[in-house]
Structure formats: C-alpha cells, structure tokens
Amino acid sequence: MEILEIFLTASFWTAAIRIASPLILATMGELICERAGVLNLGIEGIMVAGAFVGWFGAYIGMGLWGGVLLACFVGMLLGLLHASMTVSLGLSQHVVGLGITLLATSLTYYAYRVALPEVTSPPKIEAFQPISIAILAYIPILGPALAEQTPLTYLAISTVLITSFVLYRTPLGLALRAVGENPFSVAAQGLSVLGLRVGAVVVGSGLMALGGAFLTLSAFDSFFFGMVNGRGWVCIALVVFGAWKPHKAFLGAILFAAFDAFQIRLQQSSIGAEIPYQIFLMMPYFLSITALVVISRKAEVPAALMAPFYKGER
Amino acid sequence: MRLEAIPHPSLSRRFLPPILALASTVFIASLLAMVAGGNPFAVLGLIIKGAVGSKFALLETLNRATPLIFTGLSVAVAFRAKLWNIGAEAQLYSGAVVAVIMGTGALAWSPSVLIPAMIICSMSAGALLLLIPTLLKTRLGVDEVVTTLLLNFIFLLLVSLLLEGPLKDPMGMGWPKSARLIAEARLPRIVDGLRLHWGFGIALIAAVIIWIVNTKTTFGYAMRAVGFNAEAARYAGMPINLIMMQTALLSGGLAALAGFSEVAGLKGTLTLDLSPGFGYSGIIVAMLALLHPLGVVGAALFVAGIFVGADSMSRAAGVPTYLADIMLATALLLMVVAVLLTKFRFKRE
C-alpha cells in the first residue's frame, strides 16, 4: 500500500514535472535537430555548458533571465560549431557530436575553475521560485501539480506547443520535416537544405542549453561538476521513445520523470531501505534502454537522419 | 562553395592540414592559459617537461598510455566497422571487476596459469557487455550509441554496489575499495626497478595483432567492408550481423583489457576512480590515429603525455588541469576537419 500511496500525493506529481522540465527542453532541442536530419550528440556537453553559463550569468548579477538568455546564446554558438562541421562540411555526426560534448564539458569545467579559483563549496544564487497559476489547477489529474511551478517549467511546456505548432502547421515546419526525410525534394523547391539544417541545429542546441540552465537556475541554486549526469543521453532516448513527435516525446519525459520521482521516494520508504541505493539509481537508465528496445522496432526514423547533403550530388 | 575531391593529393596537401590542426590546438591552449593568468610559453613548457622531462615523467606517461592504447584499439576496431561503441568505459570496468574476482585469492594458481586465465575471462566479460547492445542493434534496430552510453552509467553504479557489498575489502576501513590482488595475480614489471608493468607490453602486442588482423586476414577485410558500405557487403554475400558481433566481441574484449591491466599492473586494487574517463579518451585516441592500430599507440602516448604533463603543469602554474581535456577535444575536432582537407578542396560555384 505504501508504494501506491506515493502516486496519489500532489507533491509527487509536482516533483515529477519539475524533474521532467530540463528533459523536455533538451528533448525538444534534440528532436528539432533530428527532424532536420542531424543527430546532435553534443547534447550532453551543451547541457553542461548551459547549466554553468546560466548560473554564472545570474551569479555575476545579470539576473535570472539574463542567465537564461546567456545560456541559450552559448548553446546556439555550440550548435553553430556543430552544424558548420556536420552540415556544411558533412563530417561524421557521431564523432563531431562526441567531440563537442567533450569540448563543451572541459571548457565549462575550465571556466568554472578559472572564474572561481578559491571556492570549496559551490556558491549559491537566488533561484527561480514557483509561481502560482491558479487556473491551471482546474486541469484534471496533472492540474494541481502544474499550478505550482517555476517560470522555466512553463517555458518548457510552451516549447512543446510551439515546436509542435511550427513543425506541423507552418511552411517552415514542412520544410524542416522534409529536409530530414528527403533533402533533395527541398533543394528541388529552391530552398536551402544547409540553411534549414544549420538553423535547426542552432535553435535545437539553444534549447538544450536551456535544459541545462534549468538545473542551476530552477532545480538547484548552484553549479557542481557532474550535475548533468547523462541527462543528455536520456533525452536522445526520449526522442526515439517519442517516435520523433513532440507530444509523444513530452509524454515520455513526464513518464520518465514520474519514474525518477518514484524511485527517489521508494528509496526513502521502508521497502527501499533494504535494497542498495545503486539499484534505484540504475533504474532510470534501464528504463531508457527498455523504452528504446520496445519502441525501436516500429519507429519511423527520419529517413535522412545522419545522411549529409552535398549540393548537386545524388 | 562546395567540396571537391582532389584526385592526386600532393605531399603538402596530405601533411599540412594535420600539422596545422595540431598547431592551432597549441595556439588555442596558449590563449586559454593566458585567460587563466599563466604565461603561455611557460605553461606549454611545463606540460612538455611534465610529460617527458625526466625518467619519472616518461614512465608515468607510458603507464598512463597503457589503458589508452587498449581503449583506443577498442574504439578503432569498432568504429572501422561503423559499430559506434561509446561504452569502452563500462567494458573497462567489467575487465577490472573480473580481475578482482579472480585475483584476490579465490584461485591459488601459479602466475603462469592465473594471469592468462584472468586475461581471457576479463576479455570475455567486456566482449559480452558489448554483445548486448550489438545484438539489440542487429536484431531490433536499437541505436547502439545511446545504449552503450547508458550502459556506462549502469555499470559504474554496479561497480559501486559491488565495492560496497560483495567485493568490499574487509580491511578497507569502510572505504569502497576491493581487496588487494595477491602477488601471483599481479603483472610483473618489464624491467626490474623501473615502474612500468607488463600491461604496456601487452598493449603493444595487442596493437600489432590488431594491425595484422586488419591488413592480413579476411576477418579484417570483412570488418572494413562492413564499415565502408554495409549494403555492398551484404550483396557480396557477407554475413553482416555475424561480422558486427565478432567486431563487438573483439572491441569489448580490448576495452576490458584496459581495466585488467590497470588493476593487475598498476593499482593492485579496484576503486570507483580507477578510470578518469579512459573509455571516452579512447575515442580521441582512435580518431587522432585515424583508426589505424599502430597509430593508436602513438596517439595514446600523445594523449597520455598531455594528461600527465597538464597534471604537473597545473601544480606548478596554477592553470586548471582541464586545459588538457580542452586541448584533446580541440585536437579531435580540428583533426576531423584536417583529414577532410587532405582529400577535398573548396571550390567556388
């Protein structure tokens, strides 16, 4: 009974949505890249950079929203680096992506050490506080949990709606989807394949950095090493789980986060005390792999994912 | 602007871009060292001195290169067949765990039996660990990049669990570390009195073997064919899935040797910080070596030198050691571009 009660508390779902928020932002970022045909393995490093830069912006007095913008900007710069190598030069998306992750992570840690040479415990900032949007509480089931969140969570949810709208209801979205399925058809229409792909990777990387910034500006109030801890890779799994569709990926992120919130609570329960805590920490990663296995069989992968496009060649 | 293949690259075409890539890496590192308040020439000098400046430094670099040769070979073998194994870190730890299980006194065998047995079992553990995501890839079409990455996190937690449970050293004063390996399970030093163990020798032998397999055997040819064009290889009647699985067994086994050699050769015990990311650095090693097995040895020495040199530079100049990681990531990215420029040139439309 103790286990079932966990699901019934409002605080559980509030926590689940909070845990889901950075995943939602970064997953939408990755989804946009992949729909345009580019696998962005820089996600993990871009999230690390976003987490640090966002926090640093707030720490030096740019304000919380200043931090958010700065994180987004740095994410877009890293995205531009990724795109100029993978899209413009057509280099291996695997190698470049991992290289960007290594570069962004090490640059971040270096910057942290250079900027704050003598700190022993990470300095704190005044993080985003939950704002109450009473009207949301009327939404069934998730409503009460949605009504008490920080502004960045609302931003994350709006991102899903905007991504979904742009992808399926605008000419730009049509072109983006086409460029991930059959870039030649887009080129034949006189649109720039490279331009669309570069744009998608830049915007997507900006969202990934926002996902990272959520960790330092909303979930916690300081930056520490290893805080992204594989979340980026989980987001790549979530894109597959969501079959490259924004609303499904969103649901996947909520499910994943609910599971994560559940394992944290289970750990603290009387049953959890008898099981090594590492088992609980492994569960989210296992869940991601399981989700990939279950979904992969029938997933509709963008046909031109990871296929570079060279003008005038077929 | 578009890229155009160069039919017969000149000598300068083939060597200038990689040299420029390395020079730019050094230049960027100098700028960053200046940002941190260091004198760039002093910082670079300290890195070189720390890497090769004394007998002690040189041996340290060779020791550090040992696991990197193994993980570099592992990645090179896998990437050549376009099997994206990013899980060398987990495979490394699997080898280390097996070395600890077998080498802490459970088996009272003589070294001539025990060490080969440990090598075989460690390799099997790493091989099996990579076989899982490879089977998921070939049977169910699950992308191996994400699964191997996630397995790294899972396996490290498993090691943590083992070190606090079954493998915990009863004399360890509560620290999460394993018991020490018995003397019979330790890799001896290559030369008496020099702090360099046989793991380095095994790594060199492994590189030569992989080189021979790559160039002189049909299996090596098959791996390259699958990586170059899997569809064409399929039409030619090659069993793609079987070749993928064989590649996985080889790649996973090589990465596991890194863990075995660190435990049996260097540390003598297993802790959670056995590998400071050797699995991920292996990707840089393999790419800098252009996936060539003998090049892996050179690249591993270079990467190890940067790490060891940066450690000692950081102590002397106060510039964070992360400079080493930045240099290597930069070198990786610039090298990929450089290799492209050895074969292609930009042409105006």
Tell me the Rg of chain A in angstroms. 20 Å
> Termini distance of chain B?
6 Å
Q: If helices are DSSP runs of H or I spanning 4 or more residues, what is the number of helices of chain A?
A: 13
Q: Please provide the ordered H/E string of secondary-structure elements of chain B.
A: EHHHHHHHHHHHHHE
Strand order, sheet with most strands of chain B? 1-2
Main β-sheet description of chain A: 2 strands, antiparallel
Shape category of chain A: globular
* Mean model confidence by pLDDT of chain A: 90
Order of strands, main sheet of chain A, comes to: 1-2
CATH C-level name of chain A: Mainly Alpha
> What structural category characterises the helix and strand content of chain A?
mainly alpha
List the domain count of chain A as a whole number: 1
Main β sheet profile of chain B: 2 strands, antiparallel
| Proportion of helical residues of chain A | 55-70%
Radius of gyration of chain B: 21 Å
User: What percent of residues of chain B are in strands?
Assistant: under 5%
Structural class of chain B: mainly alpha
The helix/strand order of chain A is: HHHHHEHEHHHHHHH
Organism (chain A): SAR324 cluster bacterium
GO molecular function (chain A): transmembrane transporter activity
Membrane topology (chain A): Multi-pass membrane protein
Keywords (chain A): Cell membrane, Membrane, Transmembrane, Transmembrane helix
